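Quick illustration for those who missed Monday's session on complexes.
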Amino acid sequence: MKRNSVAIVGAAETTELGKVPTMSQVQLHADAALNALADAGLKLSDIDGVATGGHNAVEIAHYLGIVPKWLDGTSVGGCSFMLLVRHAAAAINEGLCNTVLITHGESGRSGLGRHGSSIFPSLFQQQFERPFGVTRPPTMFTIPVLRYMKDFDLSEETLAMVPVVQREWAGKNPRASFKDPITVDDVLNSKMICYPFRLLMCCLVTDGGGALILTKADRAKDMPQKPVYIRGTGESAETPMISQMADFTSSAAFKVSGQQAFESAGISHSDVDHLMIYDAFAHLPIYGLEDLGFVGRGEAGPFIADGNTRPGGKLPMNTNGGGLSYMHSGMYGMYALQEGVRQMRSTASAQVPGAEISVVHGVGGMFSASGTIVMTNVA
Amino acid sequence: MANGERELPRPTPETQNFWDGTKAGELRLQQCGDCENVYFPPRHFCPGCGSKSVAVLRASGRATLHSYVISHLPAPGFEPPYAIAVAKLDEGPKMMCNIVDCPQTPVALVIDMPLEVSFEKINDDITLAQFKPVRGQ
Ligand SMILES: [Zn+2]
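Prediction with zinc ion bound:
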């Protein structure tokens, strides 16, 4: 794709996050969409492309009264929105549509008007995993981690530093669900969910939504918000079954997606001012830092524990507090993208001073799929 | 006891032979006649090279404990805490399983410990391939 040819010109979350008992899932989509339109200074009638994951895109278009020229319903879990940004940028460049609205809404906590899984069921998973007692994500996503811990000598204490550091960022964010500081002992003494994962190593479950509006970069200059350009993108997928990951210490999807994003953006790791790595569970930033190439194999745990990603560190990461402390509706990718946009607009609660390049990396399913977006505020 | 019953596999034409195997006390993999790739789960072609020249390979049943978790969450047909594990077969492929005949504790469940297949008959149609520690080695 052409670097910086498409820009994010509207971005917003739902007015409320956390527990939203007054809205069903489709209304969370709409609430975020209307907020993003207001942010962009656009009307519903300006939108000619609609995309969403985890919900029927036709229902979203109809609910908003839009008859689109372009539609995308890619639904591969929480990173669907990274893939949708990529697909939307390609569609805009190809002239299939001019202005794309990407929406997310999920009544993850209240369960109002919620569909089933955001991912299609897997034939193989039904036969070869579900009979062994896998249920919700904590029983699946965590399965490779003891292998990693043995191979790279990662201790539970170091793993516990991931939520500790992210809580430091959350403390700077008035909209974060949890803001009080926590210690390694707090994490290791929290309730056991799925050994070796304790409660504070697992994401929140909340209600909320978010929306993005993308259009051609040359149009973006005349719009109210500082444009955030799509500089590079990547996507990939490996397996619908966690047991069939080729390497339990590394995600093939992360590596392919990340490499495409960096190469298409024409950046190196030292160019990155701000990083988001989807953190449904504490080990994901560790896998992400290594598979994206920021550090070598086995180095990510100590890298985080040494403070490199905390406020004031050299690689600010998950600056909204992440899925571990900010919010996690189920498909967190949209919120990671929103924080990337805020950082590029210089409007984040925990703003990284002078940040020009943000990398936002997502996971879908249980290491099943991945999408990576490189954003910049420099045309 | 947790509510409900364990979810059971629903065999499909591509996997029936595997489930016939577990019922007969055999752990069946597949091997490609062209590139020799040994793979799981079963399908009518080799996912390594696309060849349709594939044959059933009876696995030794020997494996090691590749990774696991011990779930404390409720699950139909399970009494928490229980381990959900992945066995790495000597032939190469990995399989999800439970570890039977073994305390469900981090002390008893040691990464890389040797395992052997243990068939668990659920009903007349379904027998699961489980794994248990190899004793006295
Ligand atoms: Zn082959």
